[in-house]
User: Which sequence fits this backbone?
């Protein structure tokens, strides 16, 4: 009777929380002029084998379908985006500013903040080389987190540039086939003992640790920070060369969002992947691109553990009544009138409920209160008048049935 | 570069159409007091093997996960709902009125109106025996289709009762293990030549054809039709014994929604499945239940082919601007001011875009118009004044930069 390990049932309260997160995501991305797209949940296995990097491929939900095709549940959205853009970009003015809210799947050991499925907001800009695009994307990542009530005391974006590291790898003559592994080691270094990183890096350990200590500066990153300051978002960002990102396809500026308290995993992350579309299209199309993703699991934990963020969410839940009007049938011979009225109310957009089975009047009122309805409309002896009861004040007025709609409209106005 | 056969890429225009459908679905279900839930996309294979019937099981996307578990992509939502309700129902007042919008998957030959994936609105009532619940559910199914601008000239709900058929099977002493196959044959009879149905039914053909001709009547169905009339929905419904539904678990009233013109497959369908929760919980919990599903593929085709429905959709698209305000940077030294203003506008909920790369002023205005923005704000020589241009009328006013927000608010109000 349980869902699979690492998968979630969304009972109505959890689903409301998810819808709240999705709606803030959509609202913020649209504020930046992003438009929504989506792709298939299942893709050809090759799409990921080629481009996502070994770690993701090891964690794929992959199988052979009934037609003999090797397929996989999407572990991330970027390969799908790159595939769609390579095929369809001519229809659209560049730069594209696209977002999506895919569910993604990875077979790994479930642990706090990491399940086998989660939802992500993905925001990508395609067809723009200028660092202003990197800034726009980072600003959006910041505003997506701010939308939930978090401030610069709660979180920070750590910004880096893969070119720090790829230039070092070139300088040290590391063969290209070892780059991915080396970048992964640098990416993981914060979460592992220094000795382990040292051992894995071998003769590279010295120069890498030197860069860690001295930090990084570049005209490009300084410009990004300066532009974030113009937006009033300077307090949310810092340069940090340790950020590398685990995925294979990043080429330039990369960033990750963390809570200041260090209690959670990375909340969000992304960067530039200028080569991916060319690689997927066998160099038929070359378009610079960059994007980030934020997941619902860590974000949900953060919201629940932050009083201001939780209060904002609960305030919105309280303002959304599942039921606005409850129809009480006090006399069974009034059912016909009650049901006709209910349909009229629903046609006008009110959320209306009633007791499907026959029930005592007291019980119907109790149900009305439990649903959180604002009004009850009572059909009883007074027909063609009905009772309109405000369930908060318990005040009831008698009103001609054909005046109810106008009366409700005047109260809402 | 293509998606898998039978799977869809949702480019922004298609995604907007999908969001329009989802939003009408949510709005209508909530109008009936339904609350949203969701379950996992992947479930244990057994959940479907036991209860969904042979046809669905043959079409499952099934595989063994990396932990050795036989699993399947959900082909329908009802088994997940039944599993969740059996485990969690004590937390909730009955009857439950729950809806969900799952994506579901079946490996079958893709054809018009039927892909290998689609989205469904599922609405279910759990814990209510009275036929008023059947009526409430059928009324919701009607209103879900009406929400897109369709009338009783466009579609009809055909209502039946499986008990017509199960009573016949009992009477004719058909062994229970042959019921499912027989019901499937009756279900398919409309889409197959009479001879084929006759051959499959054998000695049952006579009594079955007799019921087809004479039609069905029952106190229960008449009560449902009468209640739909009270709601003003009588014109949308008819009794039709040929409706059986393909799934194994239905026990009582069943119904399907069709376009009057007969151009499309069934738009929606559902019914009572009073035994399913007991079966899934090994008789630990018994709760009467009923539900229906409507898919996005046939509905989308119907909307696009019906002038009134298409016009309603396009009117809503036209009213939703992807970009409201476009920021034009006429002098590069004004970028700082432009970007600061943009952030203020976005913080107040406006959808704002600008040119990420440096561009000539004429080109920026062209981009502004292409995005469909209502206003451009121009940062040039006049600072601390800026230009506020109405892109529909081409009228431009000069305004102090710190008065822009108030001016925009007064125009919107």
Assistant:
């Amino acid at each position: 009777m349980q869902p699979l390990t690492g998968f979630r049932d969304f009972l109505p309260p959890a689903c409301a929380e998810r819808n709240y997160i999705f709606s803030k995501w959509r609202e913020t991305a649209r504020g930046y002029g992003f438009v929504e797209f989506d792709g298939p949940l299942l893709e050809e296995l090759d799409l990921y084998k080629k481009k996502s990097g070994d770690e993701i491929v090891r964690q794929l939900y992959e199988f052979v379908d009934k037609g003999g095709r090797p397929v996989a549940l999407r572990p991330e959205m970027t390969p799908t985006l790159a595939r769609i853009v390579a095929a369809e970009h001519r229809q659209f003015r560049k730069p594209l500013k696209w977002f999506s809210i895919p569910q993604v799947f990875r077979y790994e050991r479930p642990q706090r903040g990491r399940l086998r499925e989660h939802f992500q907001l993905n925001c990508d800009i395609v067809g723009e080389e200028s660092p202003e695009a990197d800034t726009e994307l980072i600003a959006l990542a910041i505003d997506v987190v701010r939308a939930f009530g978090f401030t610069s005391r709660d979180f920070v974006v750590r910004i880096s540039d893969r070119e720090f590291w790829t230039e070092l790898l070139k300088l040290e003559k590391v063969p290209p086939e070892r780059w991915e592994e080396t970048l992964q080691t640098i990416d993981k270094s914060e979460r592992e003992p220094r000795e382990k990183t040292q051992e894995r890096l071998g003769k590279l350990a010295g120069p890498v640790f030197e860069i860690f200590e001295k930090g990084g500066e570049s005209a490009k990153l300084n410009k990004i920070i300066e532009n974030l300051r113009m937006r009033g978002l300077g307090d949310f960002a810092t340069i940090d060369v340790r950020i590398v990102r685990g995925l294979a396809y990043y080429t330039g500026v990369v960033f990750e969002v963390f809570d200041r308290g260090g209690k959670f995993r990375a909340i969000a992350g992304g960067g530039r992947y200028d080569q991916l579309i060319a690689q997927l299209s066998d160099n038929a199309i070359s378009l610079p691109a960059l994007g980030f993703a934020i997941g619902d699991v860590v974000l949900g934990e953060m919201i629940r553990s932050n009083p201001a963020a939780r209060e904002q969410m609960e305030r919105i839940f309280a303002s959304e009544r599942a039921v606005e009007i409850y129809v009480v049938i006090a006399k069974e011979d009034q059912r016909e009138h009650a049901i006709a009225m209910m349909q009229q109310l629903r046609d006008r957009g009110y959320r209306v409920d009633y007791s499907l089975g026959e029930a005592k009047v007291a019980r119907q009122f109790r149900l009305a209160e439990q649903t959180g309805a604002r009004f009850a409309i009572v059909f009883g002896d007074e027909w063609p008048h009905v009772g309109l009861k405000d369930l908060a004040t318990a005040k009831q007025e008698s009103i001609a049935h054909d005046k109810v709609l106008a009366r409700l409209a005047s109260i809402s106005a």
Q: What stands out?
A: Chain A touches chain B through 92 residues (CB under 8 Å).
